[in-house]
Design a protein that fits this description.
The mean pLDDT is 78. Helices cover 44% and strands 23% of the residues. The longest helix is centred in the middle third of the chain and has 30 residues. The chain has two domains: 121 residues; 138 residues, Cathepsin D, subunit A, domain 1 (Beta Barrel). Helix 1 crosses helix 2.
Length: 299
């Protein structure tokens, strides 16, 4: 089979891009599109290894593992070893599944048109056909992802009402089973809300403090309410500023929960494209002091 370098590189750029998107979904990790594009090009050009005669299988495997590490590092810029390991494992899992599918196709469907060597795939077909096929597969993947995300969001969607110093705000929220944040000092469960959504609860000076996080200049009126919440994510370790509300009211499709033993951490960026503005810890519902059943659907 004649292998054309332009087809080889183009195909593997698209495949690497799909690998990275799948990895992002598996690891629930947001990333920069430009960095993903750079990682995809690295993956595409690394496919040129197919032209080298590597006599030792172990060396070939090592090169592929190192290349995968570079692709993950460039595409996601993980800030901790734990985050890198999670992303790297996700990327390798997707790669192994893809390799299995390619091997199956190679031995069953038109094997003279497919080559899978040293972890690199090549199809002896026109570039236009290859690009079209990969884009169709990618489109189907995005459709499945959208349907799954929509289903999960609808099932866990709720309304959060926060009461603080004789003022209240309501915001669309989602019950996040992955949110296990608790206040390290009191053990209170933590909900994470966008700062812009809870802004009416604070004056200008207090908002400025919450944005900048200068612990040496905590406004006097906030001192007894402010909490510092350690958090860990794929992107690394960090801390969030939070406050103790008077109480919160969580309204789901069937029930209303009232909790006066929690912390609201604030995040100075968007959590979603508008579907929700806060992430709730399930313990806020489980440890509610009052629970009411409602008959009608609130959504």
């Amino acid at each position: 089979m004649t292998v054309y370098a332009d087809v080889l590189v183009s195909l593997n750029i698209l495949i690497t891009y799909i690998f990275l998107v799948c990895t992002r979904v598996i690891c629930k990790m947001a990333t920069n599109r430009f960095l993903v594009a750079v990682g995809s090009f690295i993956g595409g050009f690394s496919a040129l290894i197919i032209f080298f005669d590597i006599k030792y299988p172990a060396l070939s495997i090592l090169i592929k593992l190192l290349t995968a590490a570079v692709i993950v590092g460039v595409s996601f810029l993980p800030r901790s070893i734990r985050g890198f390991i999670k992303l790297y494992s996700g990327f390798l899992t997707v790669s192994v599944i893809f390799g299995g599918v390619m091997y199956f196709l190679e031995i069953t469907i038109n094997p003279e048109k497919i080559m899978y060597y040293n972890g690199t795939v090549y199809f002896d077909m026109s570039l236009a056909y290859l690009v079209g096929s990969v884009l169709v597969i990618y489109g189907l993947f995005l459709l499945v992802q959208y349907l799954l995300d929509k289903k999960v969001s609808n099932e866990n969607l709720c309304e959060l009402k926060i009461f603080f110093r004789n003022t209240a705000v309501s915001l669309p929220s989602v019950i996040d089973t992955g949110n296990n944040l608790t206040d390290g000092l009191t053990g209170r469960p933590v909900a994470v809300a966008e700062l812009s959504e809870v802004a009416p609860l604070f004056d200008f000076k207090e908002l400025d403090f919450l944005k900048k996080g200068n612990y040496e200049s905590i406004p006097e009126a906030l001192k007894k309410y402010i909490r510092v919440v350690p958090c860990g994510a794929v992107t690394g370790e960090g801390i969030l500023l939070g406050f103790i509300p008077e109480k919160v009211e969580v309204k789901t499709k069937t029930r209303v929960y009232i909790n006066d033993y929690c912390v609201i951490a604030v995040l100075n960026k968007q959590l979603s494209e508008g579907e929700y503005r806060a992430l709730l810890n399930e313990k806020i519902l489980q440890n509610s002091r009052e629970e009411k059943r409602i008959e009608s659907n609130v959504f």
